Amino acid sequence: MPENILVTGGAGFIGSHTVLELLLAGYHVVVVDNLNNSSGASIRRVKELAGEHGDNLHFHELDLRDKPALQKLFTGTKIDSVIHIAGLKSVGESMEKPLMYYNNNIIGAITLLEVMDAHGCKSLIVSSSATVYGWPKEVPCREDFPVDAINPYGRTKPVVEEMCRDVQRADQEWKIILLRYFNPVGAHQSGYIGEHPRGTPNNLMPYMQQVAVGKRPALTVFGDDYSTGDGTCVRDYVHVVDLARGHVAALRKLSDPDIGCEVYNLGSGKGTSVLEMVAAFEKASGKKIPLVMAGRRAGDGEIVYASTEKAERELNWKAEYSVEDMCRDQWNWAMNNPDGYESPDP
Ligand code: NAD
Ligand code: UD1
């Protein structure tokens, strides 16, 4: 019997790509999402992309904090493992509305774990973030570096990580993998699913994409006086399809009876500066990106990239796509869907 995997947040950017890879790998998938930051169109398009596997995807529009609804779902469907991706993720918004972030990200996780426990489902993968490292003193960031989150969104991640460790310590039937993503970008090669930020994007790639399609006049570069090769910040960009496959690798690892509660970085292991990213995007799109050089963005750190050794060794996973691939696929998504999921189907 194929395994039944519940994916929370499966309509979102990372979730939709993960659901597709799971379906293609032969899993049956149940998605729970409140569509707070996503659209049902992503689910429909994932079903189409999955072809003959599309019928193995079932969607429930519900909020994770709605415990009776979640209990009903677990009572009606046998779930083998859960991939918990749902969450709010905007750093700026979390500084304005910290309680909304703590409420959604922490109560959501508690409710999910309680319902799983009550139904004897103790196999879990959780989305964490490189944000837990804050701005590390050295790179590459290893999983054993101290946690030092620097904003309310970031602080919700170590709280959930610690909660998972405590739950597993108390009951060793639990098997939990915490995945710390670096900077996910790009889109599925089909140009059919991708990221659809609401309002003004905060992150580099979606902002640059909107400049390239003519929605915004220029990209503001936040700081060119860092001690890096060209003075701009360095990050670890990872193709969202690679990241999605990292979840399939983690799911396979959950069959290891001794896994306990483990944490893995998912990144490319390579650092790329803002200006290098701009050059790669210009090449992929054939568009000139007008730049406005500005001061540093508050709260930004200089250089962050992942050590990927542990994921390579223990998950047998390694990012395959280059920055050029990420830019090509991001541009393909943008061209096919100038208004994201509000665009007609390409
Ligand atoms: P996203 O906003 O596209 O997807 C998150 C999904 O969760 C959305 O579809 C949203 O509607 C849903 N959701 C939120 N709260 C919910 C709730 N209470 N109940 C049900 N559904 C809910 O974001 P994403 O980029 O796909 O990020 C997914 C996860 O990865 C988040 O946990 C985020 O913190 C983490 N992460 C993201 C990045 C990034 O740059 N995108 C980096 C590191 C970690
Ligand atoms: C940001 C979040 C981080 C989150 C991550 C998700 C902050 C301080 N951190 O990280 O918690 O996990 O997104 O991917 O918000 N840049 C520009 N101009 C822009 C946008 C960005 O120059 O318009 C620069 C930034 O200064 C940074 C780089 O591009 O150096 C990448 O920025 P971004 O995509 O926001 O990611 P992070 O800063 O790594």
Throw out a few tags for this protein.
seven-stranded parallel sheet; binds nicotinamide-adenine-dinucleotide; Rossmann fold; alpha/beta; two-stranded parallel ribbon; binds uridine-diphosphate-N-acetylglucosamine; 346 residues; 11 helices
Q: What is the number of strand segments?
A: 13
- CATH class, named Alpha Beta
Largest sheet: 7 strands, parallel
Low-confidence stretches: none
**Whole-number tally of structural domains:** 1
Q: What does the average pLDDT come to?
A: 97
Terminal Cα separation, in Å? 35 Å
Order of helices and strands: EHEHEHEHHEHEEHEEEHEEHEHH
Give the oligomer, counting copies of the same chain as homo and different chains as hetero.
single chain
Bound molecules: nicotinamide-adenine-dinucleotide, uridine-diphosphate-N-acetylglucosamine
What is the CATH homologous superfamily assignment? NAD(P)-binding Rossmann-like Domain
Q: Structural class, from secondary structure content?
A: alpha/beta
CATH topology: Rossmann fold
Please tally the helical runs, counting DSSP H or I stretches of 4 or more residues.
11
* Beta-strand percent range: 15-25%
| Fraction of residues in helix | 25-40%
Q: Would you mind describing this structure in some detail?
A:
The protein has 346 residues and is of the alpha/beta class. The protein has one domain (4-342): Rossmann fold, CATH 3.40.50. Helix content is 39%, strand content 17%. β1, α1 (13-24) and β2 form a beta-alpha-beta unit. α1 crosses α8 (240-253) and α7 runs parallel beside α9. The longest helix is centred in the N-terminal third of the chain and has 21 residues, at 98-118.
